[in-house]
């Protein structure tokens, strides 16, 4: 049974100080009474309304928690109470007593922590005795005068039923949240924990590390909004591990009617699993993997949520940071993960495997003169651990600056990851069809190849007819004329580079090109023909894959 002791809610004050030239946040704490689940005001307005209640004293104590409703006419009832009760009486036990004894009665109730005294007049007393009113004011004990007769047993029954029902409901709510959080803990899903706590409490949440840095947020638009949650928190709990505080979780005000005391209790359920997941050795990689998986599923995340989770994953995001999406395929996904790790030195990496494809976000910095996508492509291509059966597509850079507070950045990243996945399919097909394409490609390089797969049957047939003589010759004599033309065009018609790639002499290359011109009846290396010829070869590759 609740003791009726005041429920305490931590209130935190954030100050900013300079440490070695850097601004850090220091969070201090004080304890203040929290809004209870069922208050004396609620009891008066709900369960005593039919009795014509009138509050005579301590109007500022109507938000006191009520733990039980009890009726008694015993004068010496005080020692039998534990605090937090709403006591109902007709004053029968006070009739015939002197004023000093009645004052002692009120003072004793106040000292026991009774939430309020409801005094029915008209039976034992025509009005609440004046000395009791004065003592109630002095002792800050709310005294409520009831001018109409109501069955106390009915008031006790309905009020107590509500109290018990709420306690049972709270217990079920905490139990359900605890089970959900332990499922999240098993998966290492710290972000899911924050989201589930926020859903149950109906409040925005902010997790601040012991050093004052934002670790995770949910339900706020940016870091300023996150700090406003900290400053105006209605409930908060320290996150501790082996007696050491490693952070704080704050719940901000919301439109929800859930009382602050219940929010405080629910935060208490969450801090244990949060402490465990935040200190796991693989915490950063698991948080990053969960984030990438959610983006692949196109889950809308607010900018503040996204940046906080990237930071918690170990990526030092800043105003000049750029995220470059990547997608990779190999017989063993660990081959892709190994190569992607080469991009870590650029700034950081988070990745996840979804349906046998490895998706990642590489953090780099917009230096103003270097293409971030090319930076990533070069880092991956130069990695000596790269194996031949691996294919990776590097997507378009996504700057973090000048993005909206809402889910725009997350949706942009989701779209770019989807494009990487689609282009990865094209790149794998090209390599399967015998194309000379490199194993590390930029998504923008593959737009034409993707477009070839979207053309109408009529256009595909027209393009196929352009190089049909070469295809027939290759089928008849294995002359590799189509392959030779593709290599020559993709190398800018450089005879030296084309011959090196084909592993033939320049004279042999010239002979093949002459044969190609003779079969086609025109010069396919003329600049005006580049696009049509390459598109025709792309259509050929896509048809070769379809036939397989």
TrEMBL record:
Protein name, UniProt field: PucR family transcriptional regulator
Domain PucR C-terminal helix-turn-helix: 481-538
Domain Purine catabolism PurC-like as annotated: residue spans: 51-163
InterPro entries from the UniProt entry: CdaR-like_regulators, PucR_C-HTH_dom, PucR_C-HTH_sf, PucR_dom
Organism of provenance: Gordonia oryzae
Signal peptide: none
């Amino acid at each position: 049974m609740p003791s009726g002791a005041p429920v305490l809610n931590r209130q935190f004050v954030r100050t900013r100080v300079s440490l070695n030239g850097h601004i850090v946040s220091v969070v201090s704490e004080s304890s203040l009474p929290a809004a209870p689940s069922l208050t004396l005001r609620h009891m008066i307005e709900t369960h005593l309304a039919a009795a014509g209640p009138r509050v005579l004293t301590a109007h500022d104590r109507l938000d006191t928690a009520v733990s039980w409703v009890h009726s008694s006419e015993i004068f010496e009832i005080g020692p039998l109470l534990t605090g937090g009760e709403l006591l109902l009486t007709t004053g029968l036990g006070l009739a015939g007593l002197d004023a000093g004894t009645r004052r002692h009665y009120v003072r004793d109730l106040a000292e026991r922590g009774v939430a309020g005294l409801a005094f029915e007049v008209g039976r034992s007393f025509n009005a609440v005795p004046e000395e009791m009113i004065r003592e109630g004011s002095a002792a800050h004990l709310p005294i409520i005068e009831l001018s109409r007769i109501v069955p106390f047993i009915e008031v006790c029954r309905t009020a107590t039923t509500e109290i018990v029902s709420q306690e049972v409901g709270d217990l079920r709510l905490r139990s359900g949240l605890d089970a959900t959080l332990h499922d999240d803990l098993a998966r290492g899903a710290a972000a899911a924990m924050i989201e589930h706590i926020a859903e149950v409490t109906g409040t925005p949440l902010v997790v601040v590390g012991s050093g004052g840095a934002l670790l995770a947020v949910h339900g706020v638009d940016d870091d300023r909004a996150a700090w406003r949650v900290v400053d105006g928190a209605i409930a908060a709990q320290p996150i501790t591990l082996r007696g050491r505080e490693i952070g704080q979780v704050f719940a901000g005000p919301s439109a929800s009617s859930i009382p602050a005391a219940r929010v405080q209790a629910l935060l208490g359920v969450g801090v244990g699993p949060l402490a465990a997941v935040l200190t796991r050795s693989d915490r950063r990689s698991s948080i990053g993997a969960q984030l990438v998986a959610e983006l692949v599923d196109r889950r809308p995340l607010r900018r503040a949520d996204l940046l906080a989770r990237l930071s918690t994953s170990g990526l030092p995001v800043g105003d000049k940071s750029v995220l470059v999406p990547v997608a990779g395929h190999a017989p063993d996904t660990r081959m892709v993960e190994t190569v992607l790790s080469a991009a870590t030195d650029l700034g950081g990496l988070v990745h996840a495997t979804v349906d046998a494809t490895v998706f990642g976000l590489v953090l780099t910095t917009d230096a103003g003169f270097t293409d971030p996508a090319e930076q990533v492509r070069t880092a991956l291509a130069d990695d000596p651990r790269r194996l031949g059966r691996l294919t990776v597509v590097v997507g378009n850079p996504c700057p973090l600056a000048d993005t909206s507070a809402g889910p725009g950045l997350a949706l942009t990243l989701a779209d770019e990851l989807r494009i990487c996945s689609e282009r990865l399919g094209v790149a794998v097909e090209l390599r399967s069809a015998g194309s000379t394409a490199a194993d590390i490609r930029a998504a923008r390089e593959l737009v034409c190849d993707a477009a070839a797969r979207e053309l109408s049957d009529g256009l595909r047939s027209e393009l196929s007819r352009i190089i049909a003589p070469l295809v027939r010759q290759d089928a008849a004599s294995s002359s590799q004329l189509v392959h030779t033309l593709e290599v020559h065009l993709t190398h800018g018609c450089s005879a030296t580079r084309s011959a090196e790639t084909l592993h033939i002499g320049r004279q042999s290359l010239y002979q093949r090109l002459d044969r190609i011109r003779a079969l086609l009846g025109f010069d396919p290396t003329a600049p005006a023909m580049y696009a049509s010829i390459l598109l025709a070869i792309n259509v050929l590759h896509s048809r070769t894959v379809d036939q397989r």
